[in-house]
């Protein structure tokens, strides 16, 4: 037992193939050096992962350390349900949201319940959006996170006109939010929708400058659309002329040429050794004989 409290015990285990000892004293080994213990468990796999998880349930920190490393080497998402609650406890800031975004192997409602309990709003926004409850997600961004740039990015990502209207309706009574919207949404929605909903007695800071910026953005968008339209129209007429020229252009027909529809020869040699056209078909259906 005295030897087990020394880190050289890991060398002894590997040297004499004593991996069976780990299962009976797993928590002790984790307390002694969890990194070396996890390395042994993952590299040599002396104990099935299910047994390891069961034995470490009483110590969530050790369980978190093991499953975090286990997941890096096993991409099938076997313990993703457990990892959500563990990341929420031990490393929410760095790992929880990225994990929720990359994984497809966890129950979304259960993950949402964990995040709601802890009031993890960014994670809740992502999960609600993934579940299709974009309206509630947007309300969280506005009322809890108070992040207008995030709100606009969220609406842009989901590309839903009703969501833009919800954004405007939720912000129209908040002067500082109205200012931000006036300066930001002109390229995404018709800004007159927002302007018409501003109450006459609402004092909006920097209203004049915001309106000028909004109109400039909107005019720029209209100008870009008109420019694109002119380019498309020019391309249309240019391609139309090219198509007409191709259809009017003559082409050579040889005895070997077949009809693309009936696969008969287009021309055939008569008894007087002259060639006669025996099939009429449009030029774009003619193909060369093999």
Count of DSSP helices?
Answer: 15
Helix content: 55-70%
Query: What low-confidence regions span 5 or more consecutive residues with pLDDT below 50?
Result: 281-290
Shape: flat
Range of strand content: under 5%
How many β strands by DSSP?
A: 2
Q: What is the element string, with H for helices and E for strands? A: HHHHHHHHHHHHHHHEE
Major β-sheet, in short? 2 strands, antiparallel
Q: Largest sheet, order of strands side by side?
A: 1-2
Class from secondary-structure proportions = mainly alpha
Q: What is Rg?
A: 35 Å
Mean pLDDT: 84
N-to-C CA distance: 86 Å
Pfam families: TPR_Vps41
Keywords: Protein transport, Transport
CHCR repeats: 38-180
GO cellular component, one term: late endosome
Write a concise keyword list for the protein shown above.
single chain; about 290 residues; mainly alpha; two-stranded antiparallel sheet; 15 helices; 2 strands; about 65% helix; disordered C terminus
Structure description:
This protein has 290 residues and is mainly α. It has a domain at 250-290. It contains 15 helices and two strands. The chain has helices spanning 9-16, 20-24, 26-43, 49-56, 60-73, 80-90, 92-102, 108-118, 121-131, 134-145, 148-158, 161-171, 175-184, 191-197, 207-248, and strands at 267-269, 275-277. The chain has a two-stranded antiparallel sheet with strand order 1-2. The longest helix has 42 residues, at 207-248. It is flat. InterPro entries: ARM-type_fold, Clathrin_H-chain/VPS_repeat, TPR-like_helical_dom_sf, Vps41/Vps8. Keywords: Protein transport, Transport.
């Amino acid at each position: 037992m005295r030897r087990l409290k020394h880190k050289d015990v890991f060398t002894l285990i590997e040297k004499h193939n004593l991996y069976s000892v780990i299962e009976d004293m797993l928590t002790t080994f984790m307390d002694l050096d969890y990194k070396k213990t996890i390395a042994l468990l993952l590299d040599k796999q002396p104990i099935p992962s299910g047994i390891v998880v069961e034995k470490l349930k009483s110590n969530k920190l050790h369980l978190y350390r093991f499953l975090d490393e286990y997941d890096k080497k096993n991409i099938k998402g076997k313990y993703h349900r457990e990892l959500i609650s563990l990341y929420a406890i031990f490393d929410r800031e760095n790992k929880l949201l990225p994990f929720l975004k990359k994984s497809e192997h966890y129950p979304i409602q259960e993950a949402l319940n964990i995040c709601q309990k802890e009031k993890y709003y960014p994670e809740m926004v992502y999960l609600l959006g993934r579940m299709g409850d974009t309206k509630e997600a947007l309300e969280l961004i506005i009322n809890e996170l108070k992040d207008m740039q995030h709100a606009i990015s969220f609406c842009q990502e989901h590309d839903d006109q009703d969501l833009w209207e919800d954004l405007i309706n939720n912000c129209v009574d908040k002067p500082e939010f109205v200012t931000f919207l006036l300066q930001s949404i002109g390229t995404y929605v018709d800004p007159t929708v927002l302007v018409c909903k501003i109450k006459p007695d609402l004092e909006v800071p920097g209203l004049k400058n915001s309106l000028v910026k909004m109109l400039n953005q909107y005019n720029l968008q209209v100008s870009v659309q008109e420019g694109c339209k002119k380019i498309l129209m020019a391309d249309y007429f240019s391609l139309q002329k090219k198509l007409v020229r191709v259809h009017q252009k003559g082409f050579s027909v040889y005895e070997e040429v077949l009809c693309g529809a009936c696969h008969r020869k287009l021309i055939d040699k008569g008894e007087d050794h002259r060639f006669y056209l025996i099939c009429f078909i449009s030029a774009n259906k003619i193909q060369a004989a093999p």
